[in-house]
Amino acid sequence: MQSIQSVGSSPAAQFHVATGRAANPSAEGPSFRNMLFEAIARVQSNEHDAKLAVTKLHAGQANPLAARASIEQANQAFRTMMDLRNSLVGAYNEIKDLRI
Question: Is the pTM of this model over 0.85?
Answer without folding.
Answer: no
